[in-house]
Amino acid sequence: MLSCKDIARLVSDSLDRKLPPRQRLELRLHLMMCGACSTYRRQITELNRLFQRRFHDATGSRSDDAEPSPPRCPEEAKERIEAWLKQRLND
Amino acid sequence: MSTHDVDTMSGPEQWVFSYSDALYRYAITRVSDPNTAEDLIQDTLLAAIQSQRSFRGDSHERTWLIGILRHKVLDHYRAVKRRHEVQIGDGAECDGGIEAWFTAKGGWKQPPGKWSIQSDQLMENKEFWDVFEQCLDGLPDRPRQVFAMKVVDDQDSETVCKELDITPTNYWVVLHRARAMLRDCLEKRWFATEPKNNGK
Questions:
Q1: For A30-86, how does the pLDDT look when each residue is reduced to its tens digit (9 = 90+)?
Q2: N or C: which end of chain B has fewer CB atoms below 10 A?
Q3: Which are the contacts of A60, defined by CB distance < 8 A and separation ≥ 6?
Q4: pTM of the full structure
Q5: Chain A hits for B24, Cβ within 8 Å
C-alpha cells in the first residue's frame, strides 16, 4: 500500500507524464479513500493550471505594448547597466 | 504615449530601455540575487550589441535576448557549482520540512488546508503574484531552477535534466518538492488568510 507521502509524489508526476497502470490504479484507489490527498491533488492541479496560464500568457500572447509584469528592473540598476555598456563599447 | 522616444536614444540606452525589465524578470526568478541578475543582464546586452545587429525592439528580438540570457544563467549555475565543488542543494537536506509533514508511516501530520483557487481573480491579483515570487525565491536552488525551467519556461524534462546535469529520478523528486513547497508557502502566506484577501 502506498502512503500519503508516496501519493503526493505521484500526484506531481501525473501532471507531466502518464503513470504506469499499477501506479495509476493505486493513486485512484487511494484518492477515493483519502480526503487529505484528494484536497492536495486538487490544489496542486489547480495551481499548476494557474501557472500555465500565467506563464503562457506572459511569454506567449502578451503583446509588446503590454506592461511587463513585476518584478521590474530597478531604475538604479538600469542606469548602472547603461553606463557599464557605454564604457565597455568605448574601450 | 511614453515620454521616452526610443528612436532618439543611443544604442545602449535603447536596449536597456526596451529589454531590461523583461530580462530582469527572467533572471531574478532563476538566480534570486539582484546583483547577479544585473551582471547577467549586462553580459547579455553586451553580447547583443556586439553581435552588430541593429536594434529592432520587437518581440522576436526579446525572445532572442532571453535565449542568450538563458545560456548565461546556465553558465552561472555551472560556475557556482564548480566554485563550491559541491552539489547544489536539491532541497533534500534543507527543504524546510517536506519530510516533517508526514508521520514515520507516511501519513499526513498536517493535512492540506481547505481552500481552492479562483483563478480568474488570482490572474489579475498583483499581490498574489508578489507572494508567489517571494515563495519561489525562498525555495532551495535546485527546486527553484527545475521549477523555473520546467513550469515557467515550459522546457521538456530531457532538456532540464541535461542542462542541469541531473538524473531523471532526481528530476521528478525535485519537481515534486518544488510544487509541494510552493503549495505550502502559498497556503501559509495567501490561502490561509483568504477571507482577508477576498474582502478587498
A1: 999 999 999 999 999 999 999 988 887 644 444 444 455 667 899 999 999 999 999
A2: N
A3: none
A4: 0.73
A5: 71-73, 77
Residue whose cell numbers read 522616444: B5
Grid cell in block for residue B200:
478587498
E strand residue ranges, chain A: none
d(CA B140, CA B123): 25
In three-state form (DSSP H/G/I as H, E/B as E, the rest C), the secondary structure along B62-95 is: HHHHHHHHHHHHHHHHHHHHHHHCCCCCCCCCCC
**B136 contacts A55 by C-beta, under 8 angstroms:** no
Q: Check whether B196 has a pLDDT greater than 60.
A: no
Q: Do B41 and A81 touch (CB under 8 A)?
A: yes
Span B146-156, mean pLDDT? 88
CA distance B191 to B115: 7
A71 and B115 within 8 Å at the Cβ level: the answer is no
Question: Quick check: B152 and A13 CB within 8 A?
Answer: no
B65 burial type by CB count under 10 A (0-12 exposed, 13-18 middle, 19+ buried):
buried
How many other C-beta atoms are found inside a 10 Å radius of the C-beta of residue A6?
17
Confidence band (pLDDT; 50, 70, 90) for B54? confident
| Interface probe with B: pick from A41, A85, A87, most Cβ of B within 10 Å | A85
* Torsion region of B52: left, alpha or beta (phi above 0 gives left; psi -120 to 50 gives alpha): left
Instruction: Tell me phi and psi for residue B112, to 5 degrees.
Output: -60, 145
Please, which residues have CB within 8 angstroms of residue B90's CB and are 6 or more apart in sequence? B140, B142, B143, B166, B170, B173, B174, B177
Q: What is the ipTM of this complex?
A: 0.76
Burial group, residue B94, by CB count within 10 angstroms (0-12, 13-18, 19+): exposed
